[in-house]
Amino acid sequence: MSDTPENVAATNAEARNERHRERMVRKKTVMDERIANAQSERGLLLVNTGIGKGKSSSAFGMVARALGHGLKVGVVQFIKGRVSTGEQLFFKRFPEEVRYHVMGEGFTWETQDRQRDIETAGKAWEVAVELLNDPGIALVVLDELNIAFKHGYLDVDQILEDLRNRPLTQHVVVTGRGAPQALIEAADTVSDMSLVKHAFQSGIRAQKGIEF
Amino acid sequence: MSDTPENVAATNAEARNERHRERMVRKKTVMDERIANAQSERGLLLVNTGIGKGKSSSAFGMVARALGHGLKVGVVQFIKGRVSTGEQLFFKRFPEEVRYHVMGEGFTWETQDRQRDIETAGKAWEVAVELLNDPGIALVVLDELNIAFKHGYLDVDQILEDLRNRPLTQHVVVTGRGAPQALIEAADTVSDMSLVKHAFQSGIRAQKGIEF
Questions:
Q1: Which pathway does it take part in (chains A, B) (predicted)?
Q2: Which band of pLDDT confidence, cut at 50, 70 and 90, is reported for residue B8?
């Protein structure tokens, strides 16, 4: 083949494709090995924390995933916002598949009453324990539970004990900023959502489908 | 009131409750002001990036939210896994409300063919542009689009132009690790999901409802 500019370009493109193929063959070997080594299955404790967006929405994405696989789900929302959330409106469409409990009375700066918040959190935990005792429920979401720890409304050690006593294959997702260290240590998977930037900072208000 | 231990304890608890109330009154003022200042509404460009868990599941949680508010949603998955995902199985139940397209052929290390991946990414983007031109769709999820940028399968500048031309109130969520800088600059809200720990590292395999 003569080295006209067209032929040189064609040879370079081929070489690039070939290098890509070789790299991907190596990567496939690594990924297949990793998957082969990760064979154990059991209920996971996942924690979504950090100050960024995505802690609760990620938990609700997992609810959708679980429902897609025909699994049953339980949800306890420890903090209720000012309005009904889209996730609540949506998942309440499936009463056979999702047990959905909104227990909080509002943000802590809305009630301004520590004693009432403690009682509300205690009642919410009782509902959570019912879900955690039900082997028919594959995934339990404890939304904004970390807020209750942060204000000292619930005792972390007691809650960890209840979590340890759940059915062996049940998954649990805990959300909320400021996850306590003991919970992070007990968890299998922990994601920290950090805020790179947020539209709220530029004067954009919370919008349907995005923030609630 | 005499200062028996019981009375002292009661007084301390009351004082604590009162301090809590005062702090929450101040916090409410701050939060109400912030909400009052954030009044503008328009379609947001959100980016979920980072190496931690929660980028895609957070986007699918927003899908659930949007559906709860009666909005219509479009989804394009740029990378298809080995198996059908729970989110795909679930959201395909709502063909009137969700336009769901799985376009990728598999992970890049599965196809090992750069030219074929580029063609697949191009076709996926054509489908995305249809959704981005439809003012009836309130939220568009471009799942794992960042992977296509990372491998140079799609041109960021062209895609940003298509995103700028979408309907004014349409929200877009882009997911995938390694979001390019130009996309981060163009975005309204960016979350970086960092990995604190992951069950996969301890030999637990990917499980239904959690990872897929």
A1: Cofactor biosynthesis; adenosylcobalamin biosynthesis; adenosylcobalamin from cob(II)yrinate a,c-diamide: step 2/7
A2: confident
Among A37, A188, A209, select the one facing B71 at the smallest CB separation: A209
Q: What is the DSSP letter of B50?
A: S
Phi and psi based region of residue A124 (left: phi greater than 0; alpha: psi -120 to 50; beta: remaining): alpha
Q: What is the mean pLDDT of each run of 10 residues along chain A (212 residues)?
A: 74 84 81 68 92 94 96 93 84 96 72 83 96 97 94 94 95 96 95 86 80 84
In sequence order, the β-bridge partners of residue A156 are none
Residues A51, A5 share a domain: no
Query: Looking at the structure, do residues A19 and A105 belong to the same domain, yes or no?
Result: no
Contacts of B41 (CB under 8 A, 6+ apart): A204, A205, A207, B169
Contacts of A88 in chain B (CB under 8 A): 68
CA triple A153-A159-A161, angle to 5 deg:
155
Count the domains in chain B.
Answer: 2
Q: Is residue A156 part of a domain?
A: yes
- Residues written for chain A: 212
* Other beta carbons less than 10 A from residue B123's beta carbon: 13
Picking from A41, A45, A208, A211 by the largest number of B CB atoms within 10 A of its own CB, the best residue to mutate is A208
Do A16 and A72 have their domain in common? Answer: no
Domain membership of residue A208 (yes or no) is no
Cα–Cα distance between A138 and A135 in angstroms, integer?
A: 7
Per-residue CA distances from A36 to A109, B201, B205 (Å): 49, 13, 9
Give the structural domain span for B30.
1-39
How many Å separate Cα A15 from the centre of its chain? 42
Evaluate whether residue B212 is within a structural domain. no
How close A127 gets to chain B, by Cα (Å)?
22
pLDDT for B154 equals 94
In chain A, the residue whose alpha carbon lies closest to the alpha carbon of B202 is A38
